[in-house]
Amino acid sequence: MEKYNAIIYAGRSERDAVLCDQEDVTKKGFIKLGDKIFLERIAKEFLKCEEVGDIYISGMSKKEWDTDLPVIFHEDTSGLFDKVVNIYNKFILKKKNHTKIAILFTSDGPLITAKMISNQIRKCKEASGGVLDGFFYYSFVKKEIMEAKFPESNRTYATFKEFQVCGGDLTVVNIEKMLPHKKVIDDLFEHRKNVFAQLLVLNPFVVIQFLLKRLSITKFVKSVNRRVFKVQRGVYAILSDDAEIAMDADKPHQLAEIRRYYNENKQLFE
């Protein structure tokens, strides 16, 4: 079985200040959930996932987190996609028979499990004919699934013709295929919490349809493939049945919702 690299974003942005100050930590990955910090929980689940090979912690130095877990640190303050490219050039390319595929995740989503990671990779493969030969696989969760588990998450939802969705935190990318489109990817990552802004970046011609709630997610993905990447297939919207993939701690009420869910479902995370 081919194993894919995992890159966990563990830096700090200006908008993290409120939560970090509240929890008295330097970065959100150090917030505690139960008896473990977020980063430890996330890294251990990726380590348990049979599809995952090396795990890179981006935006953090080894001296910041004293851990025995077999993870690779890369202190980096560049943009989000640049962090991926820098890890690829510094570490991955130097390995024999290296893979071009990376699984991206964030350090503020502590409810992820190895099973959820495997499920999402399987869905990505199924979407592109059994192999990960696409450019970019972006995860979504339907509103009804999200709110069934996290009714107080107060997520922002994008309304497509078929359903309302919010973005997930697990993304699968082919790094080499994405390199020629770096400007677009940088803009997408910059606006990753704002679906409307991402639409403007990807295809402004569908914005009116989106505002009128007449844009299907299928049509949107097709237009992105043709207009941005000049291919028939390459970018995929992957709907997840696991709301935990989209439950990150951006704000205090979301951290409270994560802790509430964890305390009610500890058997799932032990």
Give descriptors for this structure.
eight-stranded mixed β-sheet; two-stranded antiparallel ribbon; Spore Coat Polysaccharide Biosynthesis Protein SpsA, Chain A; about 270 residues
User: Any low-confidence stretches, pLDDT <50, length ≥5?
Assistant: none
CATH class: Alpha Beta
Count of discrete structural domains: 1
Distance between the termini: 27 Å
Largest sheet report? 8 strands, mixed
In a few lines, what is going on in this structure?
The chain is an alpha/beta fold and 270 residues long.
Q: How would you sum up this structure, described in words?
A:
The chain is of the alpha/beta class and 270 residues long. It has one domain (4-268): Spore Coat Polysaccharide Biosynthesis Protein SpsA, Chain A (Alpha-Beta Complex). Helices cover 37% and strands 19% of the residues. The protein has 11 helices and 10 strands. It has helices spanning 17-23, 38-48, 80-90, 114-127, 143-149, 175-178, 182-190, 195-202, 207-211, 217-227, 252-264, and strands at residues 4-9, 32-33, 36-37, 52-58, 72-74, 101-106, 136-142, 158-159, 164-174, 235-240. Strands 1, 4, 5, 6, 7, 8, 9 and 10 form an 8-stranded mixed sheet that branches. Strand 8 (158-159) and strand 9 (164-174) form a beta hairpin. The longest helix is centred in the middle third of the chain and has 14 residues, at 114-127. It starts with a strand and ends in a 6-residue tail after the last helix. The mean pLDDT is 92.
